[in-house]
Design goal:
Layout: H1 3-11, E1 25-28, E2 40-43, H2 45-51, H3 65-68, H4 74-86, H5 92-99, H6 104-111, E3 125-126, E4 132-133, E5 139-141, E6 145-146, E7 153-154, E8 159-160, E9 164-165, E10 172-177, E11 180-185, E12 189-191
Antiparallel strand pairs: 1-2, 3-4, 5-8, 5-12, 6-7, 9-10, 10-11
Helix pairs in contact: 4-6
Amino acid sequence: MSVLQTLQERSNNACELCSSIEGLKQYTIPPSLNENVANDVLVCRTCLDQIEGNEEMNPNHWRCLNDSMWSEHKAVQIMAWRVLKRLRNEGWPKDLLDMMYLDDEAMRLAKATGEDKDESERIIHRDINGVILENGDNVVLVKDLKVKGSSLVAKQGTAVRNIRVDYENDKFIEGKVGAQQIVIITEFVKKI
């Protein structure tokens, strides 16, 4: 059974955050790169657009987290915590955060994206031109790079798709060059 089928089965074909049955998609929670049941949630288009920043956060939509934060699935708990952290200035999300419990591993993963930090404390990744890089962006290498620990040389002009940023260091991103997952220094890439 595929990851998507497993997610559909465990959620009864409903968004695991708001219970909507419209426009469901599989979402891999950052910074994970591997699609699997432990790292993925089934979300509706409305939730996904707000999570990814394509739409402004609508605090009233997220009142549903009062129920979904108690999910037995860690990926759902982590996403609920992250959204509540984004909305913490609204008042009611702080009450839910005070009630919520995540074990140590889940809390470490939840904090991996910096949702718990204010804007001024967040690590921002920038390419060679100063353009902000985010998870899922596509970049191109601006010079040949020798990959440490292998004989691979990533050539200038190579496109690296669907990057992941390192939430602890603003100079590093991760991406696949060929079949190999590598860490790339941001000063050697340009966003496309």
